[in-house]
């Protein structure tokens, strides 16, 4: 515990007599004395160790394994969504100025969906999968048993603080694990609400929230976990993976990257522009991991793309988008300065064709479109994660595809076209965590699709059954009886045994008969 004490004294006051937890003012005209003791619990190494020990005890006692426990906790998560949506919306507004629609739909409604699906399908997910056996093991039966991993750590990011915290926790609980959630300190209102609600609703012997920043996360990372599920930047992803390697802990890394959008001239341009705007500025003002990072199109078609985007932006956010209530603000001044620096770079600042207005006090940056910034500029080298959208124009679409292929694999890649052949070529030849043709970000809402990165954009995936799988060990179980104990596997070895065993392993029925019949 740290104890803070401070006093406010009148010049004339000579008395120094602290009164704990209160204000003592004998005579305001003579002196004022205030002594406040604030007890702040600091998370220390021993707390991290105790936490994991306690949760491991619950796991080992079987608390989290049964269907009933899992489904009860999931239903409690549903209750949080049902009973506390206004508080969640308000916390998101405090942290990000997130519009109610975005909070209610893209965080709470998506979570409800995830929970409902898990509740509905949990029994099926938990049931072992029958597996075929081979001639080698005949007679036998086999199955894949979904085993909980143990005690897992979920570290989440600030941009969708509820969705990105609770969605992995749904997977962890569904799979029967004890779980610690560490929300992002950059969304403090959301973090403290998550801590409060999860403590209030869930079984604290197996589900905990630790709030904090680098110090707390580092202490947590020193512990031995059975899985670490991290959402955030690739830079920190590397730190997570190094810490995990020490204990050979498997990781899921949900990272980011520069998600490109290719626009073909054979497209419905009005709808294309609307969907790009909704997926960029309409999703937390570009602060989303699968937000369009840059557009690639042909030199010939680009003027039409720019016009369409300008027209629809004005229709959505009016002539002064800085005043619009339908867009989140930038999360904090560090990120505001990072984005400003990108905009102010030489050979970039003069490429703005729309927007560019900023207000640091209000942490607002207008939707900004830039054309043909240098490919080696900061804005084209780093993930933007904000309301800036560069358009790169090239001679043809093949060159556009080449730009994507020459860069680290993104979390998402988008194509707008009506050309069937082009759609297929894009899906087959462009590598990305996920691909959407003719829309932005909506693959995230399809629970039958795995959500995750590849290469620099991450490893592992989740959503729907994939979340359950991410937190389960697929255990191979083979059942044999004592019937049919074949002597051929036991010494002394012989040529006949060798031939028969090889034939069995290769399922070569003809050779099996030849050996049995003594044919060469
Ligand atoms: N793939 C996805 O689902 C997804 C979703 C959202 C965001 N992202 C990516 O996340 C990034 C933005 O998030 P961010 O990284 O700014 O979020 P962030 O700063 O909130 O960091 C994420 C987490 O890492 C922790 N952290 C920060 N520094 C650390 C350190 N030195 N050691 C240990 N832990 C540390 C934070 O406390 C936080 O919980 C973007 O790259 C974005 O694309 C990915």
From TrEMBL:
Keywords: NAD, Oxidoreductase. GO terms for biological process: aldehyde metabolic process; response to abscisic acid; response to water deprivation. It comes from the Eukaryota. One of its GO terms (cellular component) is cytoplasm. InterPro entries: Ald_DH/histidinol_DH, Ald_DH_C, Ald_DH_CS_GLU, Ald_DH_N, Aldehyde_DH_dom, Aldehyde_DH_NAD(P). Pfam families: Aldedh. GO terms for molecular function: aldehyde dehydrogenase (NAD+) activity. It catalyses: an aldehyde + NAD(+) + H2O = a carboxylate + NADH + 2 H(+). Residues 40-477 form the Aldehyde dehydrogenase domain. Gene3D superfamilies: Aldehyde Dehydrogenase, Chain A, domain 1, Aldehyde Dehydrogenase, Chain A, domain 2. Its EC number is 1.2.1.3. The active site is at residues 254, 289. It is an enzyme of class 1 (oxidoreductase). Belongs to the aldehyde dehydrogenase family. This is aldehyde dehydrogenase (NAD(+)).
């Amino acid at each position: 515990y740290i104890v803070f004490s401070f006093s406010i004294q009148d010049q004339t006051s000579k008395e120094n007599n602290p009164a704990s937890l209160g204000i003592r003012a004998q005579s305001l005209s003579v002196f004022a004395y205030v002594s406040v003791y604030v007890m702040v619990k600091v998370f220390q190494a021993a707390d991290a160790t105790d936490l994991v020990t306690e949760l491991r005890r619950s796991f080992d006692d079987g608390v989290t394994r049964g269907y009933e426990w899992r489904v009860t906790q999931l239903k409690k998560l549903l209750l949080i969504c049902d009973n506390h949506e206004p508080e969640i919306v308000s916390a998101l507004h405090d942290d990000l100025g997130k519009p109610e629609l975005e909070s209610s739909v893209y965080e709470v409604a998506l979570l409800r969906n995830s929970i409902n699906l898990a509740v509905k399908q949990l029994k099926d997910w938990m049931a072992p999968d029958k597996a075929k056996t081979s001639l080698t093991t005949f007679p036998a039966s086999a199955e894949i048993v979904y085993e909980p991993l143990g005690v897992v750590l979920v570290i989440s990011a600030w941009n969708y603080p509820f969705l990105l915290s609770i969605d992995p926790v749904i997977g962890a609980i569904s799979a029967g694990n004890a779980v610690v959630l560490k929300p992002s300190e950059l969304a403090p209102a959301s973090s403290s609400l998550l801590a409060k609600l999860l403590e209030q609703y869930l079984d604290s012997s197996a589900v905990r929230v630790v709030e904090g920043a680098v110090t707390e996360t580092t202490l947590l990372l020193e512990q031995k976990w059975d899985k670490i599920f991290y959402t955030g930047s690739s830079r920190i992803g590397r730190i997570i993976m190094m810490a995990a390697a020490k204990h050979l802990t498997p990781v899921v890394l949900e990272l980011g990257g520069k998600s490109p959008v290719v626009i073909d001239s054979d497209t419905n341009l009005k709808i294309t522009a609307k969907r790009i705007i909704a997926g960029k500025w309409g999703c937390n003002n570009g602060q989303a991991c699968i937000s369009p990072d840059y557009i690639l199109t042909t030199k010939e078609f680009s003027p039409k793309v720019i016009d369409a985007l300008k027209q629809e932006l004005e229709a959505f956010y009016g002539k002064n988008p800085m005043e619009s209530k339908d867009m989140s603000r930038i999360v904090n001044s560090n990120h505001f300065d990072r984005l400003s620096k990108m905009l102010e770079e030489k050979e970039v600042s003069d490429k703005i064709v729309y927007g560019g207005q900023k207000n640091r006090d209000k942490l607002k940056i207008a939707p900004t479109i830039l054309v043909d910034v240098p490919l080696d500029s900061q804005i084209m080298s780093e993930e933007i994660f904000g309301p800036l959208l560069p358009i790169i124009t090239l001679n043809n679409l093949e060159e556009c595809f080449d730009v994507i292929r020459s860069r680290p694999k993104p979390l998402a890649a988008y194509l707008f076209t009506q050309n069937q052949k082009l759609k297929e070529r894009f899906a087959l030849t462009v590598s990305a965590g996920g691909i959407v043709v003719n829309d932005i970000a909506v693959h995230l809402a399809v629970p039958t699709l795995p959500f995750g990165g590849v290469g620099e954009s991450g490893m592992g995936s989740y959503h729907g059954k994939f979340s359950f799988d991410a937190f389960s060990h697929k255990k191979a179980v083979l059942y044999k009886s004592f019937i049919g104990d074949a002597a051929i596997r036991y010494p002394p070895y012989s040529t006949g045994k060798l031939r028969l065993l090889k034939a069995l392993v290769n399922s070569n029925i003809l050779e099996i008969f030849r050996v049995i019949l003594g044919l060469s």
